[in-house]
Amino acid sequence: MFIAVIGGSRCTPQEATLAEAVGQELARRGVILVTGGLSGVMEAASRGAAGAGGLTVGILPGDYPGEANPHVKIPIATGLGFARNVIVVKSSQAVIAIGGEFGTLSEIGHALQFGIPVVGLNTWSISKGGKLNSSMLHADDPVEAVEKAMAAAQRAFPP
User: Fold this and answer.
1) 95 - beta bridge partners?
2) DSSP designation for 158
3) CA 78, 79, 81: angle at the middle one, nearest 5?
4) pLDDT digits (tens, 9 = 90+) for 52-110
5) Distance CA 60, CA 102 (A)
6) Are 48 and 24 in contact (CB under 8 A)?
């Protein structure tokens, strides 16, 4: 199973702690981590997964695999800039969003558009017409985020 962790290249210490714990939990469960491969939430999740013996994939915006954070085991240079956000979500069966800015919001939107489940942990909420949209799942902690993402991925993409 491939699950993406998305979030800002700059993050708060709390978001980094959450991302690292999510990465660890994904690795413990044998899930392959996909990120945008750079700093912030992406690096923290990769550090957690790599530290727990997991496989980490970084879908990079630039042309050089060496731009990846040091915890990415498989760097994929796309040369596509923010357009690589589509590749990040399409490479995954579920997405966990932690914090983030508008790039993260675009990834959430792409995932939902493609029918890829999204679990939010201290991130954006989606509303339309002043009413909260329920298409995105929410979690209160890293373990719950991973459990919800894995269950949603299995429902959306049965083996």
Assistant:
1) 4, 118
2) -
3) 100
4) 999 999 999 999 999 999 999 999 999 999 999 999 999 999 999 999 999 999 999 99
5) 17
6) yes
The answer to whether the predicted template modeling score (pTM) of the entire model surpasses 0.90 is yes
Strands (E), 52-122: 56-60, 74-77, 94-98, 118-121
Residue 89 DSSP SS3:
helix
C-beta separation of 65 from 37 below 8 A: no
Task: Please give the tally of structural domains in the chain.
Answer: 1
Write out the two tokens for 65. Answer: 């695999």
Cα 30 to Cα 88: distance, rounded to the nearest angstrom: 19
Q: List the one residue out of 15, 64, 12 whose CA is nearest residue 38.
A: 64
Rg (CA), the chain: 14
State the residue range of the domain holding 50. 2-156
The CATH number assigned to the domain holding 114 equals: 3.40.50.450
